[in-house]
Structure formats: structure tokens, C-alpha cells
Write a structure and sequence with these properties.
mainly alpha, 5 helices, 172 residues
Length: 172
């Protein structure tokens, strides 16, 4: 190997001082000069990324807020439809129960007339009419309706049943 003297090394360093400083500055940060090449390069790279992230975050926040508004609007619409459906169902139930009241009235009156006309019935038919009368009274109480004729007819039916219930006949 060739011997290099100290003067040659110093001359080389003087000629290439800028390159040496640049190379050393990659690994060493000089505080008074505030030359931070690595930090500066990282900042240059990260600045657009941070801006993109901030824009993306803002966009996501806006989208979430719009989704919330749409969800609240849809929820309100569903609640309104549900309330309408509940009203319709309540009206259908009321109509059905009013029809049931009418049907029971007719059945009790028909049964009372058949007894008056001498037609014979089995015990289960009497029990059925008594059950229908209980259901009838539940419904008229629920809707606060008045009653009169049906109670009179049931008195006839009950009196006929009581007078014949000890009979051994299937029909009475």
C-alpha cells in the first residue's frame, strides 16, 4: 500500500470539505446551526401524508354526520309508520270485537228463542252459551257499552237449565 502523508490527507479534506460536511451531517445534528437533514427530509415526505390524512378524517366525519342524519330521518319515518300501523291494528281489533259482540248477542237471542219454542239442547250447548255470555260481558265492559236484553235472555236460559239440569235425559 502506498503511504499517505498527513499533508495529503489535509489537502484532500480541504478540497472535499463540502462533501465531508454533507456526509457527516447525515448522522450528526449540529444544534447551533439547526441543520437537521434527516428531520427535514422526513418532514418533506410526511407533510403531504399528514394533509391527506387530515382531509380523509374530515371527509369521514362529514360522511358519518350525513349517515347519522339519514338514519335519524329513516328512524322517524319508521316510527311514524309503526304508529299508523298500531292505529290500524287497534281499529281492526275494535271492529272485530264489535262484530264479536254482535255475533254473541245474536247467538244468545237465538238460543233463548229456541228454548222458548220447545227445541231441546244438550248440556254442552248450555255451557257454550254461558261461556259466550262471559266473553260478551268482558267485551261490553272493555268498551263501556250498555246491556239489557241479553241479561234478560240469559236469565231465561239459566232458569231453563236449572230446572232441567238434574234430568237424566241427554236433551232437555
Amino acid at each position: 500500500m502506498e503511504d499517505v502523508t498527513l499533508i495529503e490527507v489535509i489537502n484532500f479534506c480541504i478540497k472535499h470539505i463540502l462533501e465531508i460536511i454533507a456526509f457527516i451531517s447525515i448522522f450528526v445534528e449540529f444544534a447551533p446551526i439547526k441543520l437537521h437533514p434527516i428531520s427535514f427530509i422526513l418532514d418533506l415526505i410526511n407533510k403531504p401524508v399528514r394533509e391527506d390524512i387530515a382531509k380523509l378524517k374530515e371527509s369521514i366525519t362529514e360522511n358519518i354526520n350525513e349517515v347519522r342524519k339519514d338514519f335519524k330521518k329513516d328512524l322517524n319515518a319508521v316510527q311514524e309508520r309503526q304508529e299508523l300501523e298500531e292505529e290500524r291494528i287497534s281499529e281492526l281489533i275494535r271492529t272485530n270485537e264489535m262484530n264479536e259482540i254482535s255475533r254473541i248477542r245474536w247467538e244468545i237471542i237465538e238460543f233463548s228463542n229456541s228454548i222458548t219454542n220447545g227445541q231441546k239442547h244438550i248440556r254442552d250447548e248450555y255451557r257454550h252459551i254461558k261461556d259466550e255470555n262471559r266473553r260478551y260481558h268482558e267485551l261490553i265492559k272493555k268498551y263501556e257499552l250498555s246491556n239489557g236484553l241479553i241479561d234478560e235472555e240469559m236469565e231465561k236460559i239459566n232458569a231453563h237449565y236449572e230446572s232441567n239440569k238434574k234430568s237424566v235425559n241427554v236433551y232437555f
